[in-house]
Each structure stands twice: as C-alpha cells, then as structure tokens.
Amino acid sequence: MKPKNDTFLRALLRQPTEYTPIWIMRQAGRYLPEYNQTRARAGDFLSLCKSPDLATEVTLQPLARFGLDAAILFSDILTIPDAMGLGLYFAAGEGPKFERPLRDEWEIRDLAAPDPADKLGYVLDAVSQIRKALDNSVPLIGFSGSPFTLACYMVEGGGSDDFRHIKTMMYARPDLLHRILEVNAEAVTSYLNAQIEAGAQAVQIFDSWGGALSHAAYHEFSLPYLERIISGLTREKDGQRIPVIVFTKGGGLWLESMADIGADALGLDWTVDIGDARRRVGDKVALQGNLDPAVLFSNPETVRAEAAKVLQSYGKGTGHVFNLGHGVSQFTSPENVAALVDAVHELSRENHG
Amino acid sequence: MKPKNDTFLRALLRQPTEYTPIWIMRQAGRYLPEYNQTRARAGDFLSLCKSPDLATEVTLQPLARFGLDAAILFSDILTIPDAMGLGLYFAAGEGPKFERPLRDEWEIRDLAAPDPADKLGYVLDAVSQIRKALDNSVPLIGFSGSPFTLACYMVEGGGSDDFRHIKTMMYARPDLLHRILEVNAEAVTSYLNAQIEAGAQAVQIFDSWGGALSHAAYHEFSLPYLERIISGLTREKDGQRIPVIVFTKGGGLWLESMADIGADALGLDWTVDIGDARRRVGDKVALQGNLDPAVLFSNPETVRAEAAKVLQSYGKGTGHVFNLGHGVSQFTSPENVAALVDAVHELSRENHG
Lengths: 353, 353
What we know:
Oligomer: homodimer
Distance between the termini of chain A: 25 Å
Number of domains of chain A: 1
Number of strands of chain A: 11
Strand content of chain A: 5-15%
Strand order of the largest sheet of chain A: 1-4-5-8-9-10-11
Radius of gyration of chain A: 19 Å
Number of helices of chain A: 16
Largest sheet of chain A: 7 strands, parallel
CATH class of chain A: Alpha Beta
Largest interface: A-B, 35 and 35 residues
Helix content of chain A: 40-55%
Low-confidence stretches of chain A: none
C-alpha cells in the first residue's frame, strides 16, 4: 500500500511532487536527547540495534519532532560481518571493531554469506514493527553497507585512516579481495531483499569508503559489486516500485559511471555542486543531498539561506531528495534540524508544479 | 644557477624533458631508518625541524638512496601559526596541537603575519644550507600550508575529522574566518618569498584540507586566498622562473577553477584519473601525481605495473611530474620506493622525445 505521504518515493522515481522531500542520514541519532535516553536504557549501542522494540522506538523519534518525508531503519552498517561471525563490538569512544579481522587466506576461502532469516532476524523484525508503527504515514528506507565498505571494516578490523591492510591486499592479492567482495555482494543482495520482503519501501547502499579508492580501483573493486547487487534486488512489491539509492561518499568524480549501474538515485556528499551533478547525470537518476552537515552548527537563519542555495542549484523540476551530504553530527542542535526541514518544505515549492 | 638535473623544473613549465621526473611527498620521513636515527638524535620532531643542520641532513637522505629529481625542504606545515604565537607542540602519537587555539574575536583581530626573517630564520637557514649541500645537483622545493589548511589547525587546535570549530565559524561568522585567511595569505606570501630569496627553486602550497569544503565554500574560503598568494610571489630569480605548485587534497572536482589562479602546476591526489585531469585543464598547467601511496605496500612488480598505468594515462608529452597522491606512509618499504623511482625513469622515456 502506498504511504499517505509518498513524496519521497515519487521524487526518487522522478515523478512530479509538490515540494522537495527531505530525510536526514543518521536522523535517529545522538543529537536527540530522547535517543540518548533510549540508548542508555538499552545499555549499549549493539543491544539497541538488536532489540526490534527499541530500534522501532528510536526510528520513530525524529519523525515525532520534524516533518520528515521518510523513516530509515535504525540499525548498524556492520550487521552482515557480525552475522558472518567476525565478532562486532564497540569499544568506548572508539567506533566499531571486530574481534576477528579477516586476513588469512583460509578464512577468506571459508567466508560465506549469512542467511538473513537465520542470522539477521532481529533486523527483519525491526523492519516489520517499524512498518506497522508508521501506519503508512511515510515510507520506510532499508539499508546496507556496500561490499567494499564492509570489506574495509572486515579486513582492517575497525575504522582506518589509511586503509593499509585492505589496500595491501587489493594491490598485492587482488584475488583475495575479489573473493571477499563476491561473498559480500551476495550477502548484501539477500539482506536487502529480506528487508524489502519485511516491508522496506526503498533501499540505500552506503559506500562510505569507496571514495578512498583510486579512479581505477573504484571501477574494479566497488562499482561492479554495487551493480551486481542492484541487478539482484526485488524492484517491485505489491505493485509498487522499490527505488534503490547508491551513496559513495567522495564519489563526486565518478557520477557518470555511477549513473549507469541501474540505481534510481545517487546520494551526493557536499563537495559536489548539485546543479553540476544534475547536468552530468542528466535524466538517468534522481539525486539525493547534499548540504554540508556543518551548516547545522550555525543558526536557523544561516541554515535556511544555505538550504535555499542547494535548492536553487538543483533548480526546477522533480528528481531531488534533500538530505545532508553525510550523517548528522551528534553536536547538532535539534532546533537547526527543525529549521532545515521547514525551510526545504517551504522554499522548494517554487521549484515544483 | 640552473641545477645539473633540471628535469623537474622543465616539466613544471611544460618544456621538453627526456623522461618524467619524480619526487615523493614526505620523501624524508619515517619509512627511512636513517631518518628515524636522526630524529632520535634530535630528541623530538620540532627540534628536528628547528635545527638547520639536522633538517639539511634529513632532506638529503632520500636523495642518497634514490634517483629523485628534486629535494624538498624538511620542515613542518605549521611553522607559521607557531611563529604567530599559538604554541605548536606534538603530543606523543597524536599529531600536531596548539596550546592556544584561535577562537575569540579579540584574538582574531589581533592576529598578525609574522616577519619570516625575525621568527622563521631557522627555516631560511635550512633552505640556504640545503642549497649549499645540494651543490646544484637537483632543484630544491620550498613549501607552505595554504591559508585555509593553516586556519583549520589554528581554529581546531589540532587535527580534526569533522572540522567542527572552523566550520561553525565559517557558517556563523564568515567575517572572522575571512580575517584569519587574509592574515594567513599575507604570512604565506612573505614566508614563501623568503624561502625563494634563501634559495628555493620551486614552491608548493599544501591545501591539505581544502577538500573538506563544499564546492561553494572552497571557492570562497580557499581558492581566492591561493590566488592572492600566487599573485604576490617572486616568480623569477637570477633569470630562472620559480614554478608554483598548488595541491588541494580532495580537490579533483575543482581542477578547472584551480587551473585559473596562476599556478604553474596542480598536484593531484589518487582519486582522479590523471588522463581525465589533463583533458580538463588543457595547456593551462602541468600536473603532479598521482599514484595511491598504498601501492607502495605491495611489491616491486606491482609498483612497476601501477606506475606504468599512471604514465600511460597521462600519455605522451611533457607537463607531468610523477609523485604519490599524498605523502609516503611510514609503513612503506624503501625497496618499493626504489622500484617506483626506477620504473618511472625507465618506463617514461617512451612518452618523451
């Protein structure tokens, strides 16, 4: 069934809308006091992700405050490697880590895509519960990390600023990295299809680290696996098209090739001028983005002025979903988020209809 | 007087050369055991920078090992804010920090460009000594951080992954940031001119953090100050042109505008295909780069193959200075650096003459 507000879905499919829809990456996050309360009740971040009740609660929190046009499943990008047995944990103040990083050839040969129903049921349960709780008000976005981004964490064993281990593998043993990426692509495909089956009405693939690659390496180690996933996704359910958004952070140089892999929309970080991006991709895809999240450190007047610039740069017509160029920072004032959502809704009307 | 090997200078000016010259960002660094010995003798990194004798010693070390086509002054990018009185220090394993970050309006109003002869004499002494020690074998490159990159460290008080303080200032009080950038531009101009006076035969401006900006913010807060510096630099000395290289890491989207600010060459990080970059900038500037430093984690055969790809992508003719797309990592084996230098010299001959 179509959500009452399906502006987001129509914009992704480049169908006419009355205004530019907006959602915000990491909209259920630490900048919201109510999120921090739920998280404290959960005990730790992983328990929050693994409880469908609490995941539903935090998914809905930003929608109660702001007039957002979509909800996004609250979960972690590393659920897949966790389900593969790598042992995800969060060290205090340090970000995600794996107990058993993937380095040895035999471990890589043994790697297998997890069955989502078996190992990731808590995510699918959250999707169903959130859909029920949303009661068809706005669409629900499912998501996954990209094969390359998952591989970064799996091989490095956590975040990295130089990607030393995965890039050593990439240049010295590309066969091993391709093997990991094949398994990851299979895992992401069945994970996203299971989310769609459970009720996700659009999906986004976060290629958070693709921008760390060279031009040639991106086209060998990230993009083809994104394309493979997209070709394996359920694209229609109950008569509704399920749009796919691909977001490679730092991928602004490669938009032309990204527009050719079958995605409905591309996410943009804030380094690209969205008007230039639109001219480069033409009618092939919708665009999502791309305000610098740091604008939200300023004040409501500046937020409104900067939002207006993004809308103006995109220009008239549909095909734009407003978002930040990256997740909202924990140091953001909710007041500025409210100003952003209102500004986009008000100011964008003249671009439409 | 012209150096015996002036291939680097000719390539920057797009004059014919017999092969593609190469130098490597951070070539005097922690991947070299002899560098670590000198640094241990100095006691700490800042003492190494501030001793002209030791700075000369480490500047020459990579030239003794590898057939590099240029030397680069060993120094730190934060000497200017240190000379402004911000109190540069290095906490163990943490990178550079300032004792007194620049946040208050009155401090910003009071900020003044230091007189290089007075406050940065140790750098100028190092330049003279290195020139003497090089004995006109290869050219010496002087350098500085860009106004925006210096401002990042000055306002954040150290490195940052979200640039929260400087971007808050940028969006909420752009007038204050412009004031800092004006002072920095004046400081960088006189600092680079003093290095040229002391013997630097080319200069590079490192805009290491310009790529963290939005398209619009880069064109307001970084690029115009780079242009202002370039227009104030000594461009000829003793009948020799002094080429200027501008390197904005993450600036691949903005090459067209960067090519218009009067620089002789643009540095490229590894995300750009250098052949595409050449088509985009045309005959306006030479290009420097752009191998992924992570290639040097592999093995001599792979290094040779990847270097060949960069040379092939650039194609025939002059105007290319080979380099990495970022500084060489401390985890690099010197054997792979040797393989890179030899590969570039051997394989590039067919692009020339």
